[in-house]
Each structure stands twice: as C-alpha cells, then as structure tokens.
Amino acid sequence: MTSGKLTTLITGLPRSGTTLTVAILNDQPNCVALAEPLPLASMPDDPEEFSKAVGSFAGDMRQSALRDRLVRTKSIGGLLSSNFVKETDRGEGLRKSEAQNSTVAIDKEIDSDFQLYIKHPAAFTALTDTLSSRFPLFACIRSPLAVLASWQTVDMPVNRGRVPMAERFSPELSARLDAIPDALSRQVYLMRWFLEAYASMPRERILRFEDLIEDTRSALANICPGNTGTRLELQTIDIEKRYPSVDIDRLRHALKPIDEIIRYHYPEGMPR
C-alpha cells in the first residue's frame, strides 16, 4: 500500500510546531509519524516522479513497520522528540539541530491499517499542488512574529533567509531570494511564500500552533480523527522572554508589508 488515505503528508513553516505535531501523532493509537525521513538529495527533481517516490517510500515504511517494527525518521539518539533544536544558554550563539536520521523501533501495537504520517516542511511546500493531488496534505503554521523570532536564533539556512530544499523544487523562489540583499528581507519574503502556498489549501487542512496549544484534540480532529489529545505539557511562550537577544519590534515592523496574507490565516489578528 503506497499512497491514499493511509498515508498523510505534513508540511509547514519551519519552526512552527511540525516536529511537535509529529510527536503528538506518534502517541495516538495505530499511528506512526515520521519526521523528515526521506532521502531528499537522491530523490527525483520532477514533481510527478517525486510524488511517486514518496508513495514508494511510504510503502516501504509500512512494510518495515509491520514486519520488523522499525522505521526511518529523524531522532535524537534514536529517541523521538517534540523539538530537535538544542536549547542554549544566553550568549552561546545560534541554536543547532541535534537530530539525525536513524532507525527507530515502534514500541506500540499497530495493525495493517495503521495511519502513516510523513513530514517535510520545505520540499513538501514547494510541491504542494502535486503532492495534494495524491495524498492528504496538511500544513502547520504559527504566529509569523514568533516564527520569525525563532529564525533569528537557529543555525539553519532559514536564519540566512534561504530554504535549499524548497529552492531546489522552485527555481523562481531561488531567483527571487538571490535578488534580495539582506537576510531579514529574504526571511519576510519566505514567510509570504510559505503562507501563500498554504492559502491555496482547504482551511481544514491548516494546523495552527496556537489552536494545538489551546485544545490539542480539537486541533487535530481533521488530521487524526478520534485522537486522544496529548500528555505533553503545552503552553504559550512569551517571545520577548524566550528570545531576549532579538529585536521583536524590528521584526513586527518588517512583517507589515505581508499583513494581508497574515490576516488570511489569522483574521482575528496575529498572535504574539
């Protein structure tokens, strides 16, 4: 079984809670969620061939999960996590990802109809149209101000206003970013690009981080009907306290030119 209703794809803004969503889904009965498991560098550039390769990989993972109780996914030391980015003390510089792709054992009962989830933020966003014609596709978003603040603190390409895996499948995006001289302006352009891609998706396929924190069970009702919520302690973060070295007012001003697309996703106003 390689595609269809038993395989669901997840994309989303980098640093918007995609890994947290995967962690919560892995706690659900008869569900297996994989974080960025695909060997993207060796996968086809052609969107249709890429989509077929995703289906083939999903089929392989289903067989491995059922036969060997093993799957490939990003993890920290072979253990699943809700956040792959290392926490640092103030003044230690950019935060790094601790995750590596590895083989992880499934420690719960699953049957042949288990639901498989695969998440990749950048590549799946660039290929939204093609992938959504074959698989259920959901997108995670979070307050752009909180996301942009996080981008300033991580040792990832997005800190420099680049997303190589999205640019690989969208030469137009890459060219536009090449023409923007400073990192913050590139980040804002990327924010617009991600949010506009998700505006083409049905609203019920959008997972807002703030909704996940407020009522996990309701927020996941469309992607995982009958979910049992989460045992994790989730809470709203004060971004000024969370990122004391970041000029939040500067970021808020930088986002003003994309207010229209932000309001599409947050008509009640952008959360802090």
Description:
The structure is a single chain. The protein has helices at residues 18-26, 47-67, 121-126, 128-132, 144-151, 164-169, 171-178, 183-199, 209-214, 216-219, 239-242, 248-254, 259-265, and strands spanning 7-12, 31-35, 70-75, 100-105, 115-119, 137-141, 206-208. α8 (183-199) packs across α13 (259-265). The termini are far apart. The protein is built from 13 helices and 7 strands. The model has no long low-confidence stretch (mean pLDDT 92). Helix content is 40%, strand content 13%. The strands form 2 sheets. It has a 5-stranded parallel beta sheet with strand order 2-5-1-6-7.
SSE layout:
Layout: E1 7-12, H1 18-26, E2 31-35, H2 47-67, E3 70-75, E4 100-105, E5 115-119, H3 121-126, H4 128-132, E6 137-141, H5 144-151, H6 164-169, H7 171-178, H8 183-199, E7 206-208, H9 209-214, H10 216-219, H11 239-242, H12 248-254, H13 259-265
Parallel strand pairs: 1-5, 1-6, 2-5, 6-7
Antiparallel strand pairs: 3-4
